[in-house]
Amino acid sequence: MNIGDVARRTGLPAKTIRYYEEIGLISPLRDENGYRRFRESDMHRLAFLGRARSLGFSIEDCRGLLELYGDRQRASADVKRIARGHLARIDEKLAELTAMRQALAHLVSCCAGDSRPDCPILDDLAGVGAAGSDDDRQ
Amino acid sequence: MNIGDVARRTGLPAKTIRYYEEIGLISPLRDENGYRRFRESDMHRLAFLGRARSLGFSIEDCRGLLELYGDRQRASADVKRIARGHLARIDEKLAELTAMRQALAHLVSCCAGDSRPDCPILDDLAGVGAAGSDDDRQ
DNA sequence: CTTGACCTTCCAGTAGATGGAAGCCTTATG
DNA sequence: CATAAGGCTTCCATCTACTGGAAGGTCAAG
Predict the structure, then answer these.
(1) Which residue in A53, A65, A69, A76 has the most chain B C-beta atoms within 10 A of its own C-beta, making it the best mutation to test that interface?
(2) CA–CA separation, A123 vs A44, rounded Å?
(3) H helices of chain A, where?
């Protein structure tokens, strides 16, 4: 199979597949004309990568997961550790985004959004009312 | 004020401040020895940037916001549009992360996490049970 | 005069691709 | 057989928003 077929079958862009080869996640064979030739096992790894990436695993996580995937002596504890680490990072990100969302939604709801210049969003960003007394007015 | 003072007062790393100058977000003066000399207005812009960035606004959003900040003829509608756009991006990201989190938490809860190789996480990533019959076994 | 804390510029690297140029290979068609 | 379309190759640049580090100038204290 050539890269185009693999791209269609895995849903991954050919560019991405080449990139994954470049960083050592897959190692397809080569035909005499230089074209990459993908085996079924390459397809499997790429499909695996596609799913792992869609769950947000980092490339380095994916590398570890692929290694465990191919290791029959693996301990599921190692897989779980990677997944839990990723889950923790997701939770951090969610907390951060949720806080942003809350602050931002509040500001947006306070802004008239008309043709006048007065804007609580800019006031907040400029620090108006942030830390002090009347002296803070510029 | 030199960059070190500004860094201390805004909480932004000096590197970041130099970077903001490089991309045209601020334009501090220069002393004869080549050192950057920051006015109060530079401080204000940097503080503004720090807050906008902490709310997750992109650099380009920040550029637009700063321009509106300095424009007394602005319409708050323009500010609100930027903020709403950002809010929409946050909501997208939150939806994506929430979906990831849910799928991942489920997988993690299914995994024994012991010394045996059987692992529902890897099974899922490998597509086991995804779309088919027994023939899918490799 | 030296030491150490600042400051400068410039270059490289991060994550994870993606876009595009230049050029070879293959296949279908006239 | 020529040619044109489409597929493949490599290489380099670009994106976001910094961050790290090297090499070297500046300044105040002792």
Answers:
(1) A76
(2) 54
(3) 3-10, 14-22, 40-54, 59-69, 76-110, 120-125
pLDDT digits (tens, 9 = 90+) for A83-107: 999 999 999 999 999 999 999 999 9
- Is residue A37 within a helix (H) or strand (E), and if so which, with residue range? strand A36-37
Name the nt closest to A16 by C-alpha to C1'.
C17
Which residue stretches of chain A have pLDDT < 50?
132-138
Taking the CA of residue A19 and the nearest CA in chain B, the distance in Å comes to 20
CB contact B84 to A (< 8 Å): yes
Q: Considering only CB atoms, which chain A residues are within 8 Å of B87?
A: 101, 104-105, 108
Other CB atoms closer than 10 Å to residue B137's CB: what's the count? 7
B80 contacts A108 by C-beta, under 8 angstroms: yes
Span CA (B11) to C1' (C4), Å: 24
